[in-house]
Model the fold of this input.
Amino acid sequence: MKKCERGYCEAESIFALTQSMIVGGECLDDLAALRQDEAVRLLTGFEIPHPTTEGDFLRRFSLGHIHQLAKVMKLTFKEVYQLKPIASVTLDFDSSIFPVVGDKDGADYTYNKGFGYHPLFCFLGELGDWLHFWFRRGNCYTSERCEEFLQACLIRLPKGIKLYARGDSGFYDRNFIKGCVGAKIGFTITADQTAPLGGLARISW
Done:
């Protein structure tokens, strides 16, 4: 890692951000608390960068850098789970509204009349691990591109694992179900009790 003019290398900047998130930091300003903790400096071996310094560091990232990071993470996940003795795992799909204040790139009005982002998430139920996420505009519906997201999650796992999927009513989508069936994934998805579904239930009984 090259040394930057400010005296921090890239690894130190990323490590500082990771530390802040682990202890509950939600914004760059929360780094100020870590900077004041002498124990943190002794454990890390360097002083935590100032919030404005970290902001300058993050603003230097381009879309190409983000794609490079995503590629590294995909390969890392696959190698990690090849080392774990996993016979089956449940993919838990969800989305969440992240409100923001002010004019932020990609932020938009959300379905709950808020303003922010609406990312997709996938977790491994039995392991409690985060597997993947997609950052999306706030005006995206939950199921938008969810079948593509499913495929992006699958390539992060080694072949040979029995997979199941879970999702709430936001994932009750034809393409998502088709993706699960095509990948031979057992799934359970919550569905709103609409009149057509109620009719099907009565017929099946």
User: Anything to note?
Assistant: The radius of gyration is 21 Å. The longest strand covers residues 88-95. The first helix runs from residue 10 to 22.
